[in-house]
From TrEMBL:
Pfam families: DUF885
Name this protein carries in UniProt: Uncharacterized protein
Native source species: Sinanodonta woodiana
Top-level division of the source organism's lineage: Eukaryota
Length: 584
């Protein structure tokens, strides 16, 4: 019997959404493990490019099923699910035209095992004999996965669709660091604990020996990857800094930019918004240094601060403790005044494993057993939600991957990162920043993000050189050249990704202003935040529709927030973590 045939429209949609999500979990087993779905813990994702077409065809099957549903038969929550699922599938299918471009280049200094090796252990359950066995099997399969990645990269060389050298030239050093003394020692660590001895008992020696063999094979493969990068890929790397140097590169960038921003916006418009934002923030900075009675430029002000040891935390452990204290003591107590039904879930701060970025946030588990983790880069002292909501699983969990865009399932970066930047702005309203010096820390980060709009479009659309981008950056933000280089190389590697922050923040502010104007005394800020976070990641255009619907409901007095729903989306934790830049 056809199950879809006997369900109502809402049930049919839920079934399609569930089948789609389960397909994704099977296809992306490492992500599945992170979501506490353990049935694929002995598997790794295939990077074989011959799978691309069949995946696109499967997505088309799901999309066809979605389109058979009559929208008029759906309730309000299902209507949003319908639009998001259709958007996700359509975006993926439309992106297939670019499969010979970005998706053939999975090896970069920013993503994958090499970018954060300890995360493989941190995300993997190691409580039973089967857990340890699955971990070994997964490591045993990693050489094959790297073979697939190299084969894809060889095809990219053949098509002349390679990345620039700055996207890969750190990989050999990363491999050297990881394989020092002939072993990927960190992967052995789980087997050298008292817990392993207890769980594995009489099998400890055999399992440890098998893991050592898997380790040696992985070391051999990683050294092969290093040789491939140095001797095959880099000599054939793209000469242009931006992807406009590829055939059809300009159109590729336009599509990639829209993939990341979920806006029908041109590179010229993004560039102009960036210039305008840089100018606005610069004016705010000048107001602050005037209040502080400082005579000089903004950059002079930051140089003065950098020479004052009282503004610097050089000790790594002290930095981590300070950041954790800010979360616990300054931020958490204020959140109930700004957010409805905010959960009391753990967030911890740890050092990053690599020196590639300021940091990253890895969401924890829904039950709080694995805390959300903010990995912060403390090697450089100058680097200063609805998981429980009643929503389909695919709306609560989206896999983050930038290198494959625009041929990947969108994770609505402009919503997620836009919320993060909006949360930094909220810090002013919440009184998080204790004085003008901390406020200048916020502005230094905000102008940093505004510059990204200019730099990303400059590199990939207007043909800027790397040096020109670094020079522009250095005119407005106070960091050392190596920081600027690492950031610029990130933008070169991930076209469009860095634009989501500012564009998302601007859109959320616009929607708040619109709601405030239309609702007047009926406007409720925690309620506004609730409707954004409860619904989870979506395109900015759909988010506007959701807010418009919320406004209309309140005006007609039909609004009834979902009772007892707790916001626990990864994005709501960003509202905590977004403030931490004030010490960077």
């Amino acid at each position: 019997m056809c199950l879809l045939c006997i369900l109502d429209a809402n049930g049919q949609l839920d079934k399609i959404a569930s089948d789609y999500f389960n397909w994704r979990l099977e296809m992306e087993p490492e992500w599945s493990t992170r979501l506490d779905v353990y049935r694929y813990n002995d598997k790794l994702e295939s990077w074989n490019y011959t799978d691309f077409e069949s995946r696109k065809d499967k997505a088309q099957v799901f999309l066809d099923q979605v389109k058979l549903i009559k929208k008029s038969d759906l309730n309000k929550t299902s209507m949003v699910t319908y639009e998001i699922l259709k958007d996700v599938l359509t975006t993926y299918i439309d992106g297939y035209r670019w499969w010979k471009f970005q998706p053939l280049n999975p090896l970069t200094f920013l993503e994958g095992f090499l970018a954060n090796p300890p995360d493989l252990i941190g995300a993997t359950p190691l409580d039973t004999f089967a857990d340890y066995l699955n971990f070994i099997v997964r490591v045993e399969k990693m050489p094959q996965q790297y073979d697939e990645m190299m084969e894809s990269a060889r095809l990219a060389i053949q098509y002349n669709h390679t990345l620039n050298n700055v996207s890969v030239n750190r990989i050999p050093g990363m491999i050297d660091d990881l394989t020092a003394n002939g072993s990927v020692f960190l992967l052995m660590e789980p087997f050298l604990t008292a817990k392993a001895a207890t769980v594995l008992n009489a099998s400890l020696q055999n399992m440890t020996d098998r893991m050592k063999t898997a380790n040696r094979n992985l070391v051999t493969k990683l050294r092969e990857v290093k040789s491939f990068i140095q001797n095959e890929y880099m000599p054939s790397a793209r000469k242009s800094w931006g992807i406009q140097g590829w055939e059809n590169g300009t159109q590729n960038y336009i599509d990639t930019l829209r993939w990341h921003t979920s806006l029908k916006i041109t590179p010229e418009e993004v560039h102009r918004k960036g210039l305008d934002e840089v100018e606005r923030i610069q004016k705010e900075m000048l107001k602050v240094i005037k209040r502080l009675q400082f005579n000089g430029s903004v950059l002079d002000f930051y140089k003065t601060l950098n020479m004052n040891s009282s503004f610097l935390i050089m000790d790594q452990e002290a930095t981590l403790k300070t950041l954790q204290d800010i979360i616990t003591d300054r931020i958490m107590p204020k959140l109930p005044d700004f957010f409805e039904k905010f959960p009391n879930l753990p967030v911890v701060v740890k050092n990053t494993a690599s020196d590639n970025s300021f940091g990253e946030y890895i969401a924890g588990s829904a039950d709080g057993s694995r805390p959300g983790t903010f990995y912060v880069n403390i090697r450089r002292p100058e680097y200063n939600y609805g998981l429980l909501a009643d929503l389909p699983a695919f709306r609560k969990q989206m896999n983050w991957r930038a290198i494959s865009a625009p041929f990947f399932f969108p994770f609505f970066n402009s919503y997620v990162e836009g919320w993060g930047l909006y949360a930094e702005y909220l810090g002013e309203e919440m009184g998080i920043y204790k004085d003008d010096f901390e406020l200048m820390g916020r502005y230094n980060q905000e102008i940093f993000r505004a510059c990204r709009l200019v730099l990303d479009t400059g590199l990939h659309y207007f043909g800027w050189s790397r040096d020109k981008a670094i020079e522009y950056f250095s005119n407005y933000s106070d960091y050392t050249r190596d920081v600027f280089e690492a950031e610029i190389d990130r933008y070169i590697t991930w076209p469009g990704q860095a634009c989501g922050y500012k564009l998302g923040e601007i859109k959320i502010k616009e929607l708040r202003q619109k709601a405030t104007k239309e609702l007047g005394p009926l406007f409720d800020l925690p309620g506004f935040h609730y409707v954004i976070l409860y619904n989870g990641p979506m395109s900015l255009s759909l988010l506007e529709d959701v807010i418009d619907d919320w406004i209309a409901d309140i005006k007609s007095k039909n609004y009834n927030p979902t009772s007892n729903s707790v916001i626990k989306n990864p994005t709501n934790v960003i509202c905590i973590l977004a403030f931490l830049h004030l010490l960077f």
